[in-house]
Amino acid sequence: MQLLNKSYLRAKEIKLIIFDVDGVLTDGGLYFSDEGMEFKRFHSLDGHGIKMIKDFGIEPAVITARNSNNVAHRMKNLGIDYFYQGQSDKVVAYNDLMAKLSLEPKQIAYMGDDVIDLPVMTKVGLPIAVANAHDLVKEKSCIITESSGGNGAVREACDFLLKAQDKYDEAMSIYLT
């Protein structure tokens, strides 16, 4: 994970991390059957990372520009309470989250991959880009993951937050007994 600026100190204050879907939680590919049914591939490491941060007091949220039943199903499976679909202007959902959770921008991280994510990424305390993000998104980020979207990048970010907040060892201890 490539750390830029003072990302470790910023990560200590994070109470909410917002994820984009296509290109972050998935590999960004859009797969369609002949009948028009859409498929997406999610990585199990990412899902477990999301569950761990939630268990240790960091709220996960998702804001995506597209609408998809399979994404709604995955969010329910992960227990994500704050899920916004069809958000062409992601700042609207971001502002709603800040108000609902009474958070300041410095307490929020956002993980994205494309320029549609920049209006929110430039407002948060900890912007994170996946390895295969657009160059401008990487330029505006404090952290760039080693993994590509849909291939463990979200897990990297989750582990980083847990480590920065001194919760990682406790989170892992249940697997080492």
UniProtKB/TrEMBL annotation:
Descriptive protein name: 3-deoxy-D-manno-octulosonate 8-phosphate phosphatase
EC number: 3.1.3.45
Required co-factors: Mg(2+)
Entry-linked Pfam families: Hydrolase_3
Source species: hydrothermal vent metagenome
Gene3D superfamilies from the UniProt entry: HAD superfamily/HAD-like (3.40.50.1000)
PANTHER family, per the entry: HAD SUPERFAMILY MEMBERS CMAS AND KDSC (PTHR21485), N-ACYLNEURAMINATE CYTIDYLYLTRANSFERASE (PTHR21485:SF3)
Family per similarity comment: Belongs to the KdsC family.
